[in-house]
Amino acid sequence: MSSKASITEHGAVLLGKSVACDAFDDSKPLRVVTHAHADHMIGLQRSLRTCEKVLMTKATKDLIDVMKSPLFLMGGFVEILDYGKTLHYGEESITLFPADHILGACQVLVEDAEGTRIVYTGDFRIEGTLVLEADVLVMEATYGSPSCRRPFNSEVKELLVSIVREGLKRGAVYVFGYHGKLQEVMQILRDADVRVPFIVPQRVFQISKICERHGMRVGQLLRLEEKEAKEMLERNQPCLAFYHMGSRTRVGRGCFRVYVSGWEFDVPCREIADKEYVVALSDHSDFDGLMEYVRRSKPKFVVTDNFRIGYAETLARHIQKQFNVRAVALPKR
């Protein structure tokens, strides 16, 4: 079993004989991109040049076209694989399943000639993700420590809406988060009937429109460069401005600011300065969610992702102790 899945020192998740996920590996003819975040697109240009096929969902391709350029993926053979559809390659079959993370995110199931089910979760939230039964399970470990528990998950959306409404009484509210999560916040606020203009820079606008095309409800957006948007922000009128987290030191200084972050476990919302709040909205499972996936998946062997940020070694120890199955963190540190 242990020979059927691994994670290389460069972050490639290797499944069976044919598949490398989320980083380049020259030993596998197929590459899967589980979603459009940078730590899962490692070495993608090399994969495009050398792999027979690079597999992803349509939404992931659309996001990469915006985040990179429409020409980026033309450097190789990209095959769109819809959720639930199976690609046969040699003696193996590859199927993608939805993962509740960002738009287009997927889990990967490889079934080999011996009937072994090899599953890679990618990044996921347990609440909206179908758990796949596996013989060999490779899983993310972002919040793989018992210290990373969120007993208050059900309260977070209501608190987010409440804080935003409070901020709008004072004028413009700046929301900072990562691509994918920003659009989730937009949808939460639209669903809560928050009726103020949503202002976005060009990149956030493009990604939001992709999300809307694939069914998310982001509503009408004003681009930052439009005269009306500039005037609203300059006059501190009630509106919402959505920015990538990387812009937090450059814009909205002195204004009402909300940061959405998964690295909050003690309380669902925390005031960090005057008019500045962190809200614990995560697109990853907490420790209990990760353990619940293992319980329901019933694997015989588990690999935890020790390349990307997280607690892979801790998670592997707890899986082995609680479920009495072999679990290892890879790559070895």
Describe the structure.
- This protein is of the alpha/beta class and 333 residues long.
- It has 8 helices and 20 strands.
- The protein has helices at residues 44-50, 58-67, 156-168, 181-191, 202-213, 227-234, 287-297, 312-323; strands at residues 5-7, 13-15, 19-21, 30-32, 53-56, 78-80, 86-89, 92-98, 106-111, 117-120, 136-139, 172-177, 198-200, 221-223, 239-244, 256-260, 269-273, 276-279, 301-305, 326-330.
- The strands form 3 sheets. Strands 7-8-9-10-11-19-20 form a 7-stranded mixed beta sheet, covered by helices on one side. Strands 14-13-15-12-16-18-17 form a 7-stranded mixed beta sheet, with helices on both faces.
- Strand 1 (5-7) and strand 2 form a beta hairpin.
- The mean pLDDT is 96.
Radius of gyration, Cα only, in angstroms? Answer: 21 Å
Q: In percent, how helical is the residue content?
A: 25-40%
Q: Figure out the total of helices.
A: 8
Reading off the top of the CATH hierarchy, the class of the largest domain is best stated as: Alpha Beta
CATH superfamily of the largest domain: Ribonuclease Z/Hydroxyacylglutathione hydrolase-like
Kindly report the CATH topology of the largest domain. Answer: Metallo-beta-lactamase, Chain A
Count of DSSP E strands?
20
Based on secondary structure, the structural category is: alpha/beta
| Mean pLDDT level | 96
Number of domains: 2
Fill in the keyword field for this structure:
333 residues, alpha/beta, Metallo-beta-lactamase, Chain A, seven-stranded mixed beta sheet, globular
Produce a short descriptive summary.
The protein is 25% helix and 26% strand. The chain has 333 residues and is α/β, with parallel strands linked by helices.
